[in-house]
Fold these 3 entries.
Entry 1:
Amino acid sequence: MPAAAPFSWIRPEPWGIHVVPADCWLDPSRAVDHALVTHGHADHARGGHGRTVATPETLAIMELRYRTGAEDDAGQIPHKAVPVEYGETIRLPGGVDATYIPAGHVLGSAQILLEHAGERVVVTGDYKRRADPTCAPFEVAPCDIFITEATFGLPVFCHPPIEEEMAKLLERLAAHPDRCVLVGAYALGKAQRVIAELRAVGHRQPIYLHGAMEKMCRLYEEHGIDLGELRLVSDHTKEEMRGHVVISPPGALNDRWSRRLPEPVTAMASGWMRVRQRARQRNVELPLVISDHADWGELTRTIEEVDAQENWITHGREDALLRWCQLHQRRARALALVGYEDEDD
Ligand SMILES: [Zn+2]
Ligand SMILES: [Zn+2]
């Protein structure tokens, strides 16, 4: 029998990457029997799978969001959660080994290393290289095929040091002691990172939360991330919130909800705040360029460090990164996966 073609066991399909011998899917955008999930953002982790292999933190996030541990009418729990710690390898059907490696993106986020027939494939999921007090740092994993995200895959994207963005926020806060600074931030990852970074630069004041952020912040705290004193906006008066930071989901920035706040200075924490038009669209007075994704420099440096035979580019602006690979004599192709949005920029 002739040997199988190299890497024929890993196949990109529109709704996810198929690991053929194990018949399982990576971050599938539709419900499948057997899923390997890199992290808890909605465009990677979906409900409805039969079995999900992920880090304990990601499984906890999925349980919170999708009640994956809920019983059905017959009193059974139809979903099987399979936890894998960082550095741990599990054997999948068909002789495929999967190892979960920190991706530095959000709590519990992992790259997945797949090994089969002596071939190594790494799927990054979303990742960044900057330090983040709320999650384990990215690790470079040598491999034959490197499947990388490309959310900020344009040279214009160069995220500033987070200390600069924190200083801007605190300056604005100090300049308006009678107002508050309302920061729009995604509920999973960005909100907790902004809080933890404020604590890291010595901001000890209570931070006020929109009700929609509370459960995820508590989940982070249960996993050992110290967020300091958090208060719910709904439990406090306008007077009490003057001179404080308030965190809400981006959708609440221009919402009626914000009328209960003392003349908020509207801020938003996102990698897209680099694009002025995006800030204007959301009526953001104080754009904070804070991203949980690799910027252009991080993407290209990582491709060099991983030094794979081949790079598969997905999940964002594939074209410029593809071109960069070609210019640097690196084999690359763009994958056409569907269903990835920026919940998590
Ligand atoms: Zn994503
Ligand atoms: Zn993500």
Entry 2:
Amino acid sequence: MRPPFRSILVTIVLGVVFFRCDCEIVQFIFGDSLSDVGNNNYLSKGLAKANLPWYGIDFGNGMPNGRFCNGRTVADIIGDDMGLPRPTAFLDPSLTEDTIMQNGVNYASGGGGILNETGTYFIQRFSLYRQIELFQGTQDLIVAKVGHDKSQSFFQQALYVVALGSNDFINNYLMPVYSDSWTYNDDSFVEYLTQTLQTQLTLLHGLGARHLMVFGLGPMGCIPLQLVLSTTSGCQERTNKLALSFNRAVSKMVNDLGSQLPNASFTFGDAYDVVNDLISNPSKYGFNNSDSPCCSWGKIRPALTCIPVSKLCKDRSKYVFWDEYHPTESANMLIANELIKKMGFNKTSLTQAPTASPAVSPSPQG
Ligand SMILES: *[C@@H]1O[C@H](CO)[C@@H](O)[C@H](O)[C@H]1NC(C)=O
Ligand SMILES: *[C@@H]1O[C@H](CO)[C@@H](O)[C@H](O)[C@H]1NC(C)=O
Ligand SMILES: *[C@@H]1O[C@H](CO)[C@@H](O)[C@H](O)[C@H]1NC(C)=O
Ligand SMILES: *[C@@H]1O[C@H](CO)[C@@H](O)[C@H](O)[C@H]1NC(C)=O
């Protein structure tokens, strides 16, 4: 339940600054398995799914819910912290115009990337372009339901999260079966990704996205899978360098784009440094393991996915990684806190519309 006071306050402030829409502030989330809340479970032919125990063991009733985690994702935690409702998975049968306007929509899909060609190996997943197409479909539904003006203000006051990129490396560029791996070099691939993302963010702005957060990448060369595959059993330095170079390029692009596009409040944040430190010094953060998945088949590594016969670690809150690829909820909490800190995002900042100039004095009648 949301505190009624905040919801009224937000409505009044934004209702005046924008076009007098008394709708909820909701989120539209675009992402990969780090943000998927169930879409892939509905893709009948998709191979990347979190539909078996022990996924979801620390969430709700403890049954698998499509999150590639034991508990909440980073986007869940940030949204919870800001008092926003949890967006419904796009493919969830409960999605209707009403739930869209109450909760927003999450289009994130495990295996998805910025590039269309990323993750083809998983057979079915929504790439970012596809997620944006689905979002356009959502807009059409809302326009038909509430009309153009109200729909426009609803979509302009929403919060947008875009969090993709690791699959473009792990399940594309760094795998020799993908042609991008021999078409590009490290620099030109990062540039190709950044330019593609710039086009996609511009497209979203054209569709009404004004408050938009882009999450950067963590030290993906240190995920358990990469440690197992590494000859030195340490982090894969080249993979980490790619993540850093992606973060640098995308950070600049997002800031430049945000200052060029009208009324845009675009922010970039990554948690690379803190996760890197967490992996090197887990005990400093109260963790006890940063190199193996909490859910695995004992010595058989890489385990690829967590399944019912897997063994769980004793204390999930002390492991950085849940499976070979994905952090635990406790690591996600650390990441979410870092992103909130870096992006200066809090409950107050969301109510300050980018269009609001100090000269505008909100009247409570709005
Ligand atoms: C990517 O896929 C979308 C469909 O989801 C398509 O409209 C677009 O043209 C594709 N872009 C490229 C560069 O292949
Ligand atoms: C930007 O905000 C101003 C003031 O609210 C508004 O008049 C203008 O139409 C907006 N422009 C765009 C492109 O959203
Ligand atoms: C985890 O805890 C055990 C027992 O307290 C300790 O021996 C070990 O060094 C710890 N490992 C890490 C990575 O902190
Ligand atoms: C919240 O965000 C606003 C605007 O970005 C900032 O001025 C304020 O200091 C932040 N408050 C906290 C508690 O971080």
Entry 3:
Amino acid sequence: MPTIADGCYVADSARLVGDLHLGNDSSVWHMVAARGDVNHIRIGQRTNVQDGTILHVTRRSESNPGGFPLIIGDDVTIGHKCMLHGCTLGNRILVGMGAIIMDGVVVEDDVFIGAGTLVPPNKILESGYLYVGNPMQKKRPLKDSERAFLTQSAINYVELKNDYLEEGQR
Ligand SMILES: CC(C)(COP(=O)(O)OP(=O)(O)OC[C@H]1O[C@@H](n2cnc3c(N)ncnc32)[C@H](O)[C@@H]1OP(=O)(O)O)[C@@H](O)C(=O)NCCC(=O)NCCS
């Protein structure tokens, strides 16, 4: 069964299943489906998973003994309607709306992934860069304002989920 740490907000319409842990002060918004059934999902602290996003994993097999769990770090913003499958995300990352991130991908800390980006399997996204496109391309180094926004976006969502919790919004 999922375990949910203190201070989290999980919308009523979100569905969390299986071996999943949600860290302190994180939020999972409307219509999210997160299925830790054939491997585990770990979500860090102050991370937000926005509406309509799907999170899933890949099972262990002879050719891939660990399978592909889904690991998401702290202060990560996952925009609306993203698909994250069996990948590993560090800290302070923004995944733009509608992005697709596939098995075995590793996203290092402080990365901005543009809306609609497709990240093919097993790619490594280097810290401090903007990636956009289908398939993704390393576009340019992040501006200082964008680096700051990675943290600010997480703060904004902690405040928003606190409002929802205080007002009893589901
Ligand atoms: C990636 C993003 C930050 C780009 O911002 P920007 O300031 O316009 O970036 P730039 O001006 O440096 O654009 C760089 C180039 O990438 C292109 N580009 C911008 N966003 C793009 C995207 N999502 N996919 C493909 N190309 C994109 C621009 O057209 C530009 O192309 P050009 O060099 O040929 O003119 C922004 O478009 C984006 O996708 N934000 C995500 C927002 C989001 O989903 N938030 C989460 C929900 S709250």
